[in-house]
Design brief:
With about 150 residues, this protein is of the alpha+beta class. It has two helices and seven strands; from the N terminus they run H-H-E-E-E-E-E-E-E. Strands 1-3-2-4-7-5-6 form a seven-stranded mixed beta sheet. A hairpin with a 2-residue loop joins strand 2 (about 70-80) and strand 3 (about 80-90). The protein is globular and about 35 Å long. The termini are far apart.
Length: about 150
């Protein structure tokens, strides 16, 4: 009788251990255009896009300030992927003029506007209506990006 109880207890624990990784895997999927610094570093390391770095150097090994944001914006949507020529900004609050930006991703929420100078009609990256692969948002017509500390 004791053997049967112990056997069922071990079987139940094994079932829980096997079932748990699938739940963890689902939780790590990128479902937004706001990504972790690790996800941004992974995309930058594995993309075929032409990259231009502006602002502070991007170094995922350095501890980041709460006011530092990394934004990647690119000129082309290639199916579900963001690519073409991409610029990577790392730094604090600023207005980035981004004529020709078609898609973007960031490590914090940012705004994107349809005119230069961070004016006109603006949206929030957190409200992305067209999430793409790799944690990017399709934002055609973007002319500037608002990077804020908020």
């Amino acid at each position: 009788m004791q053997f049967t109880t112990v056997f069922f207890a071990i079987a139940a624990l094994a079932t829980i251990a096997v079932a748990s990784p699938a739940a963890v895997e689902r939780d790590t999927e990128i479902t937004s255009a706001i990504v972790s610094e690790a996800a941004m570093a992974h995309w930058l390391a594995h993309t075929d896009a032409e990259l231009t770095f502006i602002g502070e150097p991007f170094n995922p090994l350095l501890k980041r300030s709460a006011q530092t944001t990394t934004v990647t914006y690119c000129t082309k949507r290639i199916g579900p992927i963001c690519g073409g020529s991409c610029s990577v900004y790392t730094g604090g609050p600023t207005c980035l003029n981004t004529p020709g930006a078609a898609c973007m991703s960031a490590t914090k929420d940012i705004g994107f506007c349809d005119t230069t100078g961070c004016n006109g009609n603006c949206g929030d990256l957190s409200s992305c209506g067209s999430v793409m692969g790799g944690g990017f948002c399709y934002t055609p017509g973007t002319q500037s990006i608002v990077v804020s500390t908020l």
